[in-house]
Write a structure and sequence with these properties.
With 160 residues, the protein is an alpha/beta fold. It is built from 6 helices and 5 strands. A 5-stranded parallel sheet has the order 3-2-1-4-5, with helices on both faces. The longest helix is centred in the C-terminal third of the chain and has 13 residues, at 109-121. The protein is globular and about 40 Å long.
Length: 160
């Protein structure tokens, strides 16, 4: 097991997961990652709720099952239309409590969420880790906080 995985499994570390492409398989279209162009996404979500049939990522599910949900959160950018489906998916597939599933209007707001979480838990930012699939978001969080940044690919061989 890697040093990073050991750190993430440490009971003192709070782990925050993005949803799309991290907790949920990003596979919304037929033989495609996308069901429609970005500008049509909210209309698509209103009509279809893509999160109702989203699948969890087995390695991350195993990690959360091994670790327990007490110090695990999800935080994702979502519109008011998307948020209910994302929240329901995470609670159904990963067993997180509603208070542990947050949505933000803009990815940059994740920085504030992580800082607030560290403050609420009364831990240094270094004890909060964010798992993301977007390098640009990880870079932003790395520059703006002391949080541990983790690319989702670190979980590809978890439990193997």
């Amino acid at each position: 097991m890697t040093k990073l995985m050991e750190y993430l499994l440490d009971p003192q570390t709070a782990v925050v997961f993005d949803i799309d492409g991290v907790l949920a398989v990003y596979e919304f279209g037929e033989l495609s990652h996308s069901a429609c162009p970005d500008e049509e996404w909210e209309d698509f979500v209103r009509a279809h709720d893509p999160y109702a049939r989203s699948r969890p990522i087995s390695q991350i599910k195993r990690f959360i099952d091994d670790r327990g949900v007490d110090r695990v959160w999800a935080c994702s950018q979502a519109s008011d239309v998307e948020a209910p489906g994302k929240r329901a998916f995470v609670m159904r597939c990963y067993g997180l409590a509603p208070a542990h599933v947050a949505t933000v209007a803009h990815k940059a707001e994740k920085v504030e969420f992580l800082r607030r979480l560290a403050h609420e838990l009364n831990v240094p930012e270094r004890r909060v880790a964010i798992v993301e699939d977007t390098v640009r978001t990880l870079d932003l969080i790395g520059r703006e906080t002391g949080c541990v940044t983790v690319h989702v690919s670190s979980f590809f061989d978890y439990g193997a």
